[in-house]
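tool_call: predict_structure(chain=1)
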Amino acid sequence: MVKKTGKILVVDDDQYVTLSLRMLLEQYFKKVEVLNSPKLIPEAFAQQVFDVVLLDMNFSPGETSGKMGIRWLEKIIELDPNTSLVLMTAYGAVDIAVQAIKDGAVDFVVKPFQNEKLVSTVTAGWQLSQSKKAVKHLRSQKDILSSAMDHQYANMIGRSAVMQEVFQTVEKVAQTDANVLILGENGTGKELIARAVHRSSARANEVFISVDLGAVSEALFESELFGHKKGAFTDAKEDRVGRFEAASGGTLFLDEIGNLSLPLQAKLLAVLQNRQVIRVGSNQPIAIDIRLVCATNMNLTKMVKEGTFRQDLLYRINTIAVQLPALRERDEDIPLLAEHFLKIYCKKYQKPALRVPEYVVKKLQKYQWPGNVRELQHALERAVILSDGANLKSSDFQFLTDDVEEDRKVENYNLEDLEKWAIKNALVKHKGNVSHAAKELGLTRGSMYRRIEKYGL
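tool_result:
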C-alpha cells in the first residue's frame, strides 16, 4: 500500500491514545506527529504545515465541556485555514462535537475508536485539505496572471483634452454594472479601456475574459462562447466551459463585435436577455452574471441602417458608449507616449536611456498614424532595436526618412558637416547665386568660394 504524502498531527494529553493513533496512521500516511499538550501547537505550525489535525476536546482531568478544544480549534484555523480539523470526543459529548463542526471542524470521531472509521475520516480530511490547497494555488496563479496581463495592458496614457474626457467617462461608468461599448479605430487602445473599466469596478478581484470575435469561426461560435457537453459533436471529447460561463462574476470583453453575422447576433442577444447559456449538446440552462464590455472599429449605427447589425442588440450593448480618438486627433500625447515606450523597450533590449529630439517629435506629430498608438509602439520598438547613439533620428523611423538633409542639420553636430550643409542649402535656396548665398551666411564672396572649393560643391 502506497502511503499518502499528507502530514497528520495528533493532539491528546493521553500518551496511550497518541501512541496508538501514531502506530495506526503511520500505515497510511508518511508523516504523523503527536503532541501531548495543545500549548505546543503554535510552535509545531511554525515549523511545518499539517494537512489534518486530530484534536481532543478536553485536556484537563474531569473536564467535559469541550471549551478548551473549541478554543484550540479556533486557534488552528487562524494558524492555517487549509488544515482539516477532526475532533476526538467521548460518546456523551457528541452534541459539543457537532457544534464544533459549525465552528470549522470537518468531522469528529468518538472514543473508543473504530480503526476503519477513524482512517476513513482522516483520509477524507486529508483530501479536503488537498482540495483547499489546490484552490488556493489556482487563485494565486490567477492573481499572478491577472497582474501580468494588467502590466502588459497598462493604464491609458494621455493628457490631451479628448483623453481626459475618456478617463472621466471610464471613472463614472466603472462604478456601475452598465454595459459599455467602446468605439475607435484599430490600435487606439480599446482593450486598455475595457481593462480600466474592469479594474475600477466592483468586479476588480474577479476574472476578466477577452474574446476576439473576429477570430472565432461561425461553426465554433456557440462552443467557444457558451460551452459544450462531451459528445455534442465529433471533436467534443470532454465537457467544456464557454467564455460566458468562465467570466461569470467578472467582466466579459467582446472585441470586434461588428464582425458577427446576423444569425450569431441573434444567439448572442438571446444570452444577454436571458442571462443564461445552454451548452451545445445540453438543454440545461446555466445562469451567468457578467459585466459586458464590447468594442468595435465599425460604425454600428450605420450598419443598423444597412440591415447588417441588429438594432435590439445595439441597444443591449451600448448603455454607455466610449469614443476613443485616433492618435492624429491627440498629437499632443505623442511625446508622453514616446517616452513611455522608450522606457519599456530600452529596458527590454538592455539599451542605455534614449531620447527623442524635439525635431523628431514634431515629425512624429505631423505623421497621420493610420495604425494609431499600436503603430507608434511598434515604431518605437524598432527604433530602439536599430539605434546606435543616445538620440533617435528620423532615419530610425522608416516613414520619416524622406528629408535626410533636414535630419543632418541636427543629427550630426560636426562643425564641418554643419557648415557644408549650410553652404549647400544656401546655394540651393538662392539658385546658385553665390553673392546672395554668401550674404545670407554672413560671408564674403571670397570666403564663400573657398568653402565651395573645400567641400567640392
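agent: The chain is about 50% helix and 15% strand. Proceeding to next step.
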